[in-house]
Amino acid sequence: MPIERTPPRPPGAAQKKRKAAPAPSAPAAPDARTRLLDAALKVIREKGYTAARVEDVCEAAALTKGAFFHHFESKEALAVAAAEHWSSRTGALFAGAPYNEHADPLDRVLAYVRFRRELLRGDLWQFTCLVGTMVQETYGTSPAIRDACARSITGHAGTLVADIEAARRLHAPRADWTAESLALHTQAVIQGAFILAKATGGPRLAEESIDHLDRYIRLLFNAKTRRTKE
Length: 230
Fold this sequence. Notes:
By secondary structure, the chain is an all-alpha fold. Helices cover 64% and strands 0% of the residues. It has a domain at 86-220: Tetracycline Repressor, domain 2. Helix 4 runs parallel beside helix 8 (143-171), helix 5 (105-118) packs across helix 8 (143-171) and helix 5 runs antiparallel to helix 10. It starts with 31 loop residues before the first helix and ends in a 10-residue tail after the last helix.
């Protein structure tokens, strides 16, 4: 990419008094639509899609039902938008996570798995998945929500493919599996781990499931003793 050069200043420009830079402004408050979406992420993860009412979302967002229906024509429309909002929020979290800093692609994949384990903190709704929650309830009744959830889950899996493929080429060039299939398998294990956490009221079995995922990946790459730095 060519370097963008600053154009030369006209004669006398150096003598002109510079205007003071404007003072930094405070971050803008979220608009009503964003407040409703943020509220939906919390309410649906706490109660489930079916039990979550429009009134619950409005109360959590401190907005009226009139404001809700100004932005969303239905609860289903909110859920579809919430899946996209979830992808945006979590995408930023994972893009800035420390596992991306490792030089070796296999170390990045293993550190990603460890990072997912570290996220199993707080109340159940705080670490379980919005789209995993919604798709379990709506896969047979709302194709729109089902497809939005599928886009979110497979889209996140897609962010792992490049590292897995690079690790496969570097450490397991004769492997007969694809990076895409392993990326999706990581999400199958993690979503299943969330179900176990909900069923048992805590993260212990979810942590064990993700530990098994770590062991499985190490076996695939013949990396049983490989260590990655925190």
